[in-house]
């Protein structure tokens, strides 16, 4: 019998990376990430448990790996077979829901067998949560891979307080109605007491859909179910660990590395930076096209201006991602072929993952950061860049379709679909006078310092109720 927890986090992935020792022994290291940073204090004080997948595959019917301790909270692995990874994760989650929820910028694909696996895996996560949660515990379910968990869990454990947070956008009526299992997905989410979104727009879409898909009564942000239970929807814009990034940015090593990066690039007058997961929602191609046209019109030139694009490998077993990688690499080759010089490429393209210190050094080295998603729940890169600019320098070009634009209002806002507009905005950001640059950056930094990821977690848990908030505060102050 396991020790029960008063707080359970349920997310697709456990917040750990596998480390294989020289003798082949396997240990786990906490992976960097905002969610685990935000949850760690509260999970520690409440003997919390995090339920999720380890990222590998198990043979069908194999026993689940045993729960284990990470620092001071417990991890409970949920096993997936390779067929489930294909159908639940790469299929329904990343080929049906991900594109549909991102304005269908790539067509969403639907297969019935993907849905069956999605249901089965959601049931497995819900059962694990039901086993781990103490009487009256709080369970916080994360993201689009697990939208059925709140209702499945409520059926097993009506005593729990259940929260759900969606990290990606929640789509409008016209798009959501394409989802073959739209009513089941809505019912799944409505198993929660509180459903959180990144932006007020997501909240509005959700309440609207509860009315139209399920014929439920709503009042403001509250949905009233047939049995009298109330579900509240609200916006909780996620943030980052601002203090950690500031600490890194202040360190002598990171500052020296930032200088070195600029030297290695030939000390350009303007360094334009992009950092993204390689994903078709991030608008990487739009940004390259804008840059290429500005070079071809002579409004920007190499070696005065160079661009660094870091693209983290992601989900490359999914077809859309393979073709994106090919397109991006072809475009980089084209720009460099036409506008690079011997020893000075116009675009430095890095298809690699970096540690936090190296990313922070890149943020500190840049003059202009370009964040141009066609649709994005929040976009933490934009916030990380701002937090890293302890010198109040650097400009941010930010898409109107990223959740972050609601808060980073002093960014140079752009519509990445409007190529001429994007080019104009990029030039304005490159040429902005120093006083203006500093004023904008100062205001954005001030906002972020008051709205970090701990505050995000605390405000969600407070709204969800129970005594987590008090315990969180006690653990912090
Ligand atoms: P993502 O789509 O993954 O997240 P984002 O918010 O930009 O996107 O976060 C990416 C994270 O990966 C950042 O913390 C960034 O530092 C890191 N990263 C990027 N490139 C890297 C590299 N080369 N090496 C190492 N780390 C790298 C989803 C939603 C977003 C939402 C977040 C959080 O799609 O809209 O902001 O969840 O809710």
Shape: globular
As residue ranges, the low-confidence spans are 467-477
CATH class of the largest domain: Alpha Beta
Summarize the main sheet: 10 strands, mixed
Bound molecules: adenosine-5'-diphosphate-glucose
Total E-strand runs: 18
The portion of residues forming beta strands comes to 15-25%
Averaged pLDDT: 93
Domain module tally: 2
CATH architecture name of the largest domain: 3-Layer(aba) Sandwich
- Kindly report the CATH topology of the largest domain: Rossmann fold
Determine Rg (CA atoms, Å): 23 Å
**Helix coverage percent of residues?**
40-55%
The total of helices stands at 17
Secondary structure class reads alpha/beta
Largest sheet: spatial strand order: 5-6-4-1-7-8-9-12-11-10
What is the CATH superfamily classification of the largest domain? Glycogen Phosphorylase B
Distance between the termini: 34 Å
Strand-helix topology:
Layout: E1 5-13, E2 16-20, E3 26-30, H1 34-45, E4 49-53, E5 68-70, E6 73-77, H2 82-101, H3 112-132, E7 133-142, H4 149-156, E8 161-165, H5 173-176, H6 182-189, E9 194-197, H7 200-214, E10 217-219, E11 222-224, E12 230-235, H8 242-250, H9 252-264, E13 270-277, H10 284-296, E14 305-312, H11 319-339, E15 347-350, H12 356-365, E16 368-371, H13 380-388, E17 395-399, E18 412-414, H14 419-431, H15 434-450, H16 453-464, H17 468-476
Helix pairs in contact: 1-16, 2-3, 3-4, 6-7, 9-12, 10-11, 10-14, 12-13, 16-17
The structure holds adenosine-5'-diphosphate-glucose.
């Amino acid at each position: 019998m396991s020790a029960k927890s008063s707080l359970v986090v349920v997310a697709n992935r456990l917040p750990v990376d596998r480390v294989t020792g020289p003798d082949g022994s396997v240990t786990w290291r906490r992976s960097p990430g905002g969610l685990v940073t935000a949850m760690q204090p509260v999970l520690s004080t409440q003997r919390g448990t995090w339920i999720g997948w380890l990222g590998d595959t198990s043979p069908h019917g194999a026993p689940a790996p045993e729960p284990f301790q990470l620092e001071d909270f417990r991890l409970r692995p949920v096993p997936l077979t390779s067929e489930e990874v294909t159908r639940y994760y790469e299929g329904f989650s990343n080929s049906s829901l991900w594109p549909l929820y991102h304005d269908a910028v790539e067509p969403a694909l639907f297969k019935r067998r993907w849905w069956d696996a999605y249901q089965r895996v959601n049931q497995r996560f819900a059962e694990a949560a039901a086993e781990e949660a103490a009487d009256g515990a709080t369970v916080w379910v994360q993201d689009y891979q697990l939208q059925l968990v709140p209702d499945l869990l409520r059926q097993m454990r009506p005593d729990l307080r259940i929260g759900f947070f969606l990290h990606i956008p929640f789509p409008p009526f016209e798009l959501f109605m394409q989802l073959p299992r739209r009513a089941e997905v809505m019912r799944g989410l409505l198993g929660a007491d509180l459903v959180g979104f990144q932006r007020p727009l997501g909240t509005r879409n959700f309440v609207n859909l509860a009315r139209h898909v399920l014929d439920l009564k709503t009042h403001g942000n509250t949905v009233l179910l047939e049995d009298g239970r109330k579900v509240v929807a609200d916006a909780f814009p996620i943030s980052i660990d601002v203090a950690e990034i500031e600490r890194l940015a202040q360190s002598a090593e990171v500052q020296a590395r930032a200088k070195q990066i600029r030297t290695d690039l030939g000390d350009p007058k303007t360094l334009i930076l992009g950092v993204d997961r390689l994903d078709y929602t991030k608008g990487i191609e739009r940004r390259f096209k804008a840059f290429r046209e500005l070079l071809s019109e002579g409004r920007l030139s190499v070696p005065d201006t160079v661009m660094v694009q870091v693209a983290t490998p992601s989900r490359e077993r999914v077809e859309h991602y393979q073709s994106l990688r090919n397109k991006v690499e072809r475009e980089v080759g084209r720009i460099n072929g036409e506008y690079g010089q011997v020893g000075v490429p116009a675009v430095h393209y890095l298809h690699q993952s970096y540690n936090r210190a190296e990313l922070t050094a890149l943020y500190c080295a840049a003059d202009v950061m370009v964040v141009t998603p066609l649709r994005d729940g929040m976009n933490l890169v934009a916030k990380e860049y701002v937090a890293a600019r302890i010198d109040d320098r650097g400009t941010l070009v930010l898409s109107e379709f990223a959740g972050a634009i609601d808060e980073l209002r002093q960014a140079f806002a752009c519509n990445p679909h409007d190529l001429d507009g994007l080019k104009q905005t990029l030039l304005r950001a490159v040429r902005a006078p120093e006083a203006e640059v500093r004023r904008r950056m100062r205001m954005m930094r001030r906002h972020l310092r008051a709205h970090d990821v701990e505050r995000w977690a605390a405000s969600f848990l407070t709204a969800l109720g129970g005594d987590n908030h008090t315990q969180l505060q006690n653990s912090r102050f």
